[in-house]
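User: We ran a pulldown and think these components assemble together. Before we commit to crystallization trials, I'd like a predicted model of the whole complex to look at. Sequences follow.
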Amino acid sequence: MHRLIISTLIIVSAAINLHAQAAADSPEQKLAEQFLTRLNALSDWYLSVDGKEVGIDQRIESMMELYDPDVLAEVPPHDKDQIGSVILRGKDNVRKWVDRIARTQVRLNYLMKRQTDGPTGDYEGWRLVYSTRLPWGGTGIAFQTIGVWSLREDRRRFTAPGSVFIQYGPDGKIRRLRLLLGEIDEVVPL
Amino acid sequence: MKKKILFTIFCCVCAALPIAAQTATPITAERKRDSAQPQEMVLIPAGKFWIGRTFSIFLDSGDLWARDKIDNRPANNIYLDAFYIDKYEVTNSDYAKFVQATGARAPWHWPQGKIPSEEEKFPVANVNWYEATDYCKWAGKRLPTEAEFEKAARGGLDRAHYAWGDDTIDKSTEEGLLAPQISLRNTATPVPATLGRPRANPVGSFAPNGYGLYDIIGNVMEWTNDWYDNSYYPFMPKRNPKGPETGRYKSVRGAGYADQGGNGIEKLVDYRNFSDPDTRMTTIGFRCAK
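Assistant: Here's a predicted model for the assembly, 480 residues in total across the polymer chains.
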């Protein structure tokens, strides 16, 4: 009897692991990781001894490769002198936003966060990325994130919880993006 | 003896002159200030203000409004130099002087090129952007920028929904919380503006806003100098923005007499509209700035 229970437990846990592994290897999860990797890489450049920003253009181009020319994006305000959603129409406006992040923020670290659910909010699901096939073709993905970044000018560090919603066209380019951040807090050393 | 008297008189005169000059100085300055103040214009002080919509409305939260239609967000905290703006919309009577002086074309709805009967004090309409610009130049002025118009329209109120203040919003209802832009108090004169009418009113028919400007919302919509771009706000300059360098449409601000129902967003002080600069409309007029 004990053997049967142990065998069942082993099979169930193996199945859960396999399922989780399959989810982690899914194309949708890779899309989400690709987006965050390229976003975080926007601060992955250096100043040369003569003050040139080496590698910044390549990082921006790498991020811009993800977008369709007619992309519509909704992103958080750029600075303390803005309030409300920023709607970016077309790739040129998205490029301005990406360019601004690359030149004004450093130590970017956007992480995927597990989805929380339930009335108490303390349940953490095993799925990081939720996805669906879009009726008009392509894929839609959604995931929660925690964003952390520092300002280049004074190195003050900030964090905010948020959500990302992306619609990819059949060609794999981003057609709709929503990066919504909640309340932004400054990270201060204790 | 005579020399002594002459010397004393000379000393008294010398002493009196600077005193007289000192007394006269403020009066002269006051007179100079008076002459610098353009007739029927209001000085809008230099400083920062929030341009655009700083609050969410139910159309946003319910995703009832296509995202790509939103053009008044994000709100930006921007600085403007001081400027003068007309207290009233340009009237038919004002415009007739321009037509007479320059030979410009009269609005098409004027019978035989004359002001319609008893409409001297009505805002001029059916003038396109070029004609409005020419009028302002002729008057030694210019059209206001879109940012100048909104700062003037706000009347010194910080981040309010309306040019006349938010006391007109009935916050006791669900609508008042979810859709303040449609939940105006139901009184005899719910808002001090010419809205929801078949035609305009004579200028100055309602109380002015905090800066003393009449009909800044309502009566006729007004041309501004800026080109319209729905993507301008995300990257607008933070000092004296003058709009995009080029475009297809010109920005039009302030609701018109025909605007009223539906979700009523035209009444919001930050509401943006636009029109082809060649268009002449019965609901679009203008005022000048300096």
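The radius of gyration of chain B is 24 Å. That may be worth checking against your pulldown data before setting up trials.

User: Thanks, that helps.
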